[in-house]
Specification:
415 residues, nine-stranded antiparallel beta sheet, 13 strands
Amino acid sequence: MFGDCCTPLMEVQFTLLPWKRCIHLTLLLVQLSLPEVGASCRILRCNSEFVAATVHLSSSSSSAAALSSKVVNSAYCSALRSYGRCTKRMARPCRGDLAYHSAVQGIEDLLIQHHCPRVGPTAQPWPLPQGTMSEDTCLYERNQVSREGQMPEYLYCSVFGDPHIRTFNNDFHTCAVQGAWPLIDNDYLYVQVTSTPAKGGMYPTVVTKITIILKSWRQCADQQQYQAELDNVPAAFADGSVWSGERRGHRVLMVRTESPGQHAEIRAAHIGTLMVVRQSGRSLSLSIRSPRGIIEAFDPDHDLQLCMWGCPASQRINTLSPPALNSLAEAAIRAEAHCSALLPTQDVYFHACVFDLITSGDLNSSTAAVNALQDARNMISNGQGIHLIPVAAAGRARLQLLLLLLSILGILGGA
């Protein structure tokens, strides 16, 4: 797509860069013509980052005027490789999206036109030069506000109970997975949960271990590890410290607790991330709030992240349809009554509560859903996004509304 637009202009000198205007116009047209790109497909973000990385290379830029054509082309190739890397990260959520496939084809054409090596350096953020640090670099929120003029966009994920997972894209799954599985695996953070067979109950797994690795980053923070196990939720990192790094009077990494042995809150100021670990009944839970820019900073091969895409389809359990055994009918009624008293809104937390109570037979299992909802209230700034209504439940509500409308129409027609 981009090659057909720009090829006739490519015979002129690189310093004039007429292709620069062409590709920016093409990207703008793609964005304007495809406003319905899904929330989980962030191809427009890739487009915008490419434009930002190459805007200083335009013929009208004072910085480009001082550069040779070889340097300009090398910088442009670096930006293209970064653009390609961004699209690879979006391959899964953008499958079938026209803007995505247009961008992929355009990158391929431009790499060939400019004789760009497939392997090489990628574009550095512009205008901050590599290696420089502002006073607020280690304080993510302040840095974002000073550079962008607005607060970062935060995403939320949680795992609790059987286990149930609320993803960053607000999908909700119940998983039958066993063993160690990554929740998050990006350039800044690695989070892993371990599920083991539970004693008794109808479904075999609960989270019994949580491992968090906060990776070292520039001069802000050295690598730190936090680990919690069932009946051992420490209010300290693995090395025994409760904080590390200090910037402008703020501690960069910090652990605190409100209930020793049952709760831990981990804050990482340099990546704007908050994590809460809890023990609820006989299982562990984890809630995470982190900026989109941090969460999406991962390589394409890191495609197994439960917080990004949920548990594999083969490992999902339908919480709206617990095992249909006659012996469970009375238990289901009691579970719904118990969970309704704790969670009046029939959202995913209510259904998770009922499911856990039926399958475990343990009244204490309901605290996992209650605590997870409280964490969501504390971490999600948009109050409208706290309660997720299961698709099947929403479908039943729409059907009931349709039947009501049809009955009203029937009454009016008969009149």
